[in-house]
Structures are given as C-alpha cells and as structure tokens.
Amino acid sequence: AGSTVSVAGTVSHSELYTVTTKKDVVYGTGSGMNLKIDIYTPNGVDAPTPVVLYIHGGGFKGGSKNGVADDALMLAKHGVATVGIDYRLSGTAIFPAPLHDIKGVARYMKAHATEYNIDPNAFFTLGESAGGVLASLMGVTEGNTTLEGTVGGNTGYDSNIAGVINISGSYVASIVDTMSGGIKNAISAETGCEPVPSTACESTYEALSPETYISSGDSPFIILHGAKDQSVPQIQAETLDTKLGNAGIASEVYVASDLAHVGGLLARYLTQVINFINTNS
Question: CA 144, 135, 137: angle at the middle one, nearest 5?
Fold first, then answer.
C-alpha cells in the first residue's frame, strides 16, 4: 500500500502556495442523490502533489464537507491537494454505503489525476471522529471487493491509498464497551443493530471496525488523539496502534495531554502529519 516509490512534490512545512478551490464537484450518485466534493489544489507546483481525502466527522449521522474547509485550505497552502468529501449519512444509508462513497472519491480523483496535478500513488485519507473510522477502513480494506462498491464508476482504477491520518477516530470493536454512550448509539445507527455492545449485534458492529480487517501489507497510520477525549477514550487509539504494530504495519500515535475530541489536534501535530505524507509519498 505504501511501498510505491513515487516522485510526488514535497509538502512544505511553510504555507507557500495560493490555492484554487473547486466546489461541489459531483463524483457519483447514491441513494438517489448527487454526491459532491470540494477540491483544493495548490497553485504553481511543478511535480504532481500528494492528495489528502478529508473525511468529516459527525457520528456518521451529521456534518458535511463545509466543516473541513478551513483545514483543507490550510493543507493545500502547504502543497498537498485536499478533497473535502460529502458521503451518505446514517439517516440516508448505513454502512458500507459511506465507505463505498469514499472509495468512489479515491477512484474519481485517480481518474482525474492529470487534471488536478496529483500523484495517484500518493493518496492519503484524513478523517476526524467517525471520519477517522472511514479513513482507517480505507487503509485496511484495499482489494476487498465487497467493500469497494461502484459509486461514481471509474472501476478501472483502484481505491488504494498510501497512508491514513486518523484524528480521534480510533474504533476497536473488541473494546467497544469503553466508548461513550453517544458513540455506541452512533455505531448502532450506522450499522442498523442495537444495542452495542451485544452478542446479537457483534458481527454487525465488528464489520464497521478497522480492527476486523487488519493484515500485513496494510497502509501505514498516524493516529492523533486527545487524552481528555470523553467520547473516544485514549485506550482506543493506543489499542489500534498496538494491533497495527502486531501485524507489522507502520503506525505512530500522538496523544495530546491537554486536548479532547478532534479540536486542535491537526494544528498541534501538523509537522508530524506533513512528515508522514512526505515519507509515504
């Protein structure tokens, strides 16, 4: 997954670039609706750039690509193309629909790589909270035909990525009982089975957990977490990191002692994220 030697442009530690933003690009349809992305590309970069597929949070039931606009713009200013993604929420279609949507975005962007001056071998997923679960699933389900879907077509392209940036989105099903009640309810709604945890729903909520799919050869991970997170406890991030490491997957975890859920984490560890993108591009 991250083994391709590529010639992507190096992402800068300084904001060197102006950015072109293309809003509401339709990448496919699902559940009778147009599915849209916003594409942020740095101007004046010669070599094809890496791209970050930025997946918003909201408990699988809320949020939109508009909520990631500021951070997406910030990343693009550093020289990495960034894509804000709208995916189907649990009120419209449950798992694996949102993963099908994200994979559809990956294929769409590979099909349009030349147009946007991006390196098809340097795709990264970045997700916050529920988006972090989807970002992580992208890194551990490469080549899984059941979870690929056909959203947006472009099926001549794969949805493989070079790395995962997981922000407050670690979800290890075997310790789902450590999650807050709100997170458990969100998982129930996204999987169509309640309560979580329970024996009756176990296979259903396990299917949403990256833990279920981890195998050697998966994409590398960088995991950002807040020690004060009351929704997703720190043990979730640490356990995911351990399980990835046990499978031989490169993983690094950063825990901010003073931060909680999502807020401030990307800015705090931006240097590490940029290093991660450059190392794996």
Answer: 30
Q: What is the pTM of this model?
A: 0.96
User: What would the pLDDT profile of 50-80 be if each residue is shown by its tens digit?
Assistant: 999 999 999 999 999 999 999 999 999 999 9
